[in-house]
Amino acid sequence: MRVIAGKAKRLQLKTIAGSDTRPTTDRIKETLFNILAQDLVDCDFLDLFSGSGAIGIEALSRGAKAAVFVENNKAAVDCIKSNLKITKLEDSAMVLMMDALSAVQFAEKNGKVFDIIFMDPPYDNGFEKTILEYLEHSSVMYFNTIIVVEASLDTDFSYLDDSILEVYRTKEYKTNKHVFIQKREGTK
């Protein structure tokens, strides 16, 4: 696994052993960042369920102003810190070892607001639903904040039909998908 573009282009990243994390493939990562390209420069990026930190590191490498990495697995947190050191991006990063919901609440208490929120929770456990329901009324989002959820192909987001959040784009791959979500027009 490597950084695809930007300041840290081509640098190899570490991953943790075992199946606790599923690193996003370079091809999928490149597609994701091509979609987000216009919104990355000088953005504040939140990477929930960070794993090795590859997504947030790619965002920093491509021009994000700052990134917050959230992971509750100690080995993964150590991996993120190592990857930030390898890429020399640690000055623009904050790593939080806690669960995703606690991290969002921590960010609220500290006045943090994000332009892009990415999450790659363990598949088919409903974690994304819990986080999205909380984010719906959270102060960590601007009106135009982009939320991207990496999920299994069969993850259902129809519960957002009754939400102020809406799916505005879905990009499917062979084994998973990226779901792009923002607040509905006319909501605050």
UniProtKB/TrEMBL annotation:
GO function term, MF aspect, one: methyltransferase activity
Pfam families: Cons_hypoth95 (PF03602)
Organism of origin: Anaerosporobacter mobilis DSM 15930
GO BP term, pick one: rRNA methylation
Keyword Transferase assigned: yes
Superkingdom to which the source organism belongs: Bacteria
Entries under Gene3D superfamilies matching the protein: Vaccinia Virus protein VP39 (3.40.50.150)
Keywords assigned by UniProt, alphabetized: Methyltransferase, Transferase
Xref: PROSITE patterns: N6_MTASE
Protein name: 16S rRNA (Guanine(966)-N(2))-methyltransferase RsmD
Keyword GTP-binding attributed: no
